[in-house]
Structure formats: structure tokens, C-alpha cells
Amino acid sequence: MIMKQKRLILLIAVFGVVWLLSPGKSSYAETALSLQQCLDRGLESNLELRAAQLAVNEAEAGVREARGSFFPTLRADYSHKLLDNHGKLENDTDFLSQESDLFSVTLSQPLYAGGINSGGLKKAGLSLESTQARLHFAELKLVRDISSRFYDLLLAQAVSDKWAESIDRLERIAMRKDSKII
Fold this sequence. Notes:
There is one protein chain. It is built from six helices and two strands, in the order H-H-H-H-E-H-E-H. By secondary structure, the chain is α+β, with helices and mostly antiparallel strands. Helix 1 packs antiparallel against helix 6 (about 115-180) and helix 3 (about 35-45) packs across helix 6 (about 115-180). The two termini are about 15 Å apart.
């Protein structure tokens, strides 16, 4: 009989310690977030996702750059030449005061570059698809991790509440037995 009382007291003490170490209802309720709020916060503040989004932006710029190789190019050149005979050594008047301006504009369109342009565009497109897939995978992984931890916390809270109920019930039983012993 005494051994059973010692076990009961030990059991109550263990549950009491667990109950005291678990967060109380008031502190838990003050910081409680919904699953969607947890997901939103995680997706906004995750550095891995930010880096993946920057990689997607870089790949998009690579696609734009590769597309640019198909567009026409415009080139403008200007040169100015002034030849003057200050020392009056030449009698040729054409040579003495030559001044020329040259302005040229060139518009060119590549017709065929041996597949380099189309290969570069295809490579850039595949790079973009790959980085978008990595971003999507990182988002899914984060959602899975947050959801898993969220439900683990809910389960831990439910188990803690059950333990608290068990401790209360065991304390009532112990008080009844104490009152019968006296």
C-alpha cells in the first residue's frame, strides 16, 4: 500500500514537472499564429527563397540578353579632321585648309550565325526553367517544414493539455486517499 502511494506521488511529481515546463495557456494564446500566418511569414523572410528569386531574375536577364542577339544593331561613328599649314611651308591651298567631318550610321541584322544565337537562347531558356524549378522546390520544402512543425506543436500542446488533465485527476485521487487515511 505504501509502495503504491510512493509510485502515485512519483507519477504526480513527474507529470507536475512536465506540466510546469510546458508553456502556459496564456503565454501560448498570446503568440498563437494560424498555419497560413506561419507560412506567410516563412515565405517572406526565408533567405534561401530570396537567393532563389534573385537567381530567377538573373536567368530572366540572361534570356533577354540572348534574345537581343536576334535584334538589329545600330552603330554610329563620327570623326573630324582638321589639317592646317601654320608654317606656310606648302603653297597648295587645298592642303593648307583641309577640314573634314565624317559621320556614318550602320544598321545591321544578323541573318545566320551558325546556330550560336539560337543555341544561346535555348540555353538561357533552360537555365531560367531550372532556376524557377529550384525556387518552386525551395518554396514547397519550406511549406512542408513549416506545416510539419506547426502540427507537431499542436500535437505537443494537446499532449501537454492531456497530461495536465491527468495530473489534476491524480491529484484529486491522491487527496481522496489522503483524506481516507487520516
